[in-house]
Amino acid sequence: MTVKPNRLFSFAPVLLTALLTALPPLLHAEPFAYVPNEGAGTVSVIDTATDKVVAEMAAGSKPRGLAVGVDSRWLYVSDQPNNRLQLVDLVSRKPGAVVTLGESPEGVSISPDGRWVVAAVEGKNDIAVVDTRSNALAFSIKVHGKNPEHAVFSPNGRLLFVSAEEGDAVDIIDFGARKQVAQVAVGARPRGIGFLPDSSRAYVATENANEVFVIDTERFAIVARVKAGLRANGIAVHPNGKQVYVSNGGDASVSVIDTGSNQVVATIPVGQRPWNMALTPDGKKLYVANGRSNSVSVIDTDKRVKLHDIPVGKLPWGVVIR
């Protein structure tokens, strides 16, 4: 059968629309922000160009930590009550395979080269490591601290810092050696962790101490303590390395730390119970998950003001942007 040229042209707009819909992460100019809503069992997808929610994806029964593969094909989400890592296909925006991890997985991060996804597994006091080439569990690394919540790679990929929320310490893993090499005592209930771009220092928020501890990553020593707001928990580091952002869950605010002086230089009001955060790659906007407001606050980092709040699902836990 011969298809007439005018019929081919009539199908062209339909085919183009279908292609754009099928490949949203790959063809979109601006990055997407992904927000796990632990009370709704979904991940909200925010277009950072318009700051509008463009999709809601199913992601287990209580999604928390998450990471995006470097090719933007897979989203890796810790499904805490089901003790597993839920994969979400970012092309179809549908749930994919699952990886069994152990009791109560929480924070998730990805290595700088995209090879490894790690999850802090509270019930086992270890870090589960998934190989992104096979999307299967490769090995686990035991930590000394109790109830690890966040596990974050240094930008050079050499170290993995783990916050032990009931151990009041940070466990430090030499990832190449696959073992813990140090433990640094910090304030009560450590939570979020962020590194300067050159990997020289780590910033750790301590929720019950209301402080941020600054750790030298060569000497594994505390070099500064910064007073933050009430129930400091999330950390995000600007790409220029000059500012660190701390979410204060009890104050409904975000503190801005100047890394030259290690002093708070601004405080920005956001929604209720701000938690984990993420910056756009250019550092111009900070997205803050507000657990009790069911929203994400967007901050202009140059003007240090909140631009607006974006409604998302119930109990948003964090944000990752790619």
Provide a compact summary of the structure:
This protein has two helices and 28 strands. It has 322 residues and is mainly beta. Strand 9 and strand 10 form a beta hairpin.
How would you describe this protein?
- Helix content is 7%, strand content 53%.
- It is mainly β and 322 residues long.
- The strands form 7 sheets. The protein has a 4-stranded antiparallel β-sheet, with no helix packed on it. The protein has a 4-stranded antiparallel β-sheet with strand order 4-5-6-7, with no helix packed on it. A 4-stranded antiparallel β-sheet has the order 8-9-10-11, with no helix packed on it.
Strand order of the largest sheet: 3-2-1-28
| Biggest pleated-sheet summary | 4 strands, antiparallel
Residue runs with pLDDT of under 50 for 5 or more positions = 1-23
Specify the overall morphology.
globular
**How many extended strands?**
28
State the secondary-structure class. Answer: mainly beta
Features:
322 residues, mainly beta, 4-stranded antiparallel sheet, 2 helices
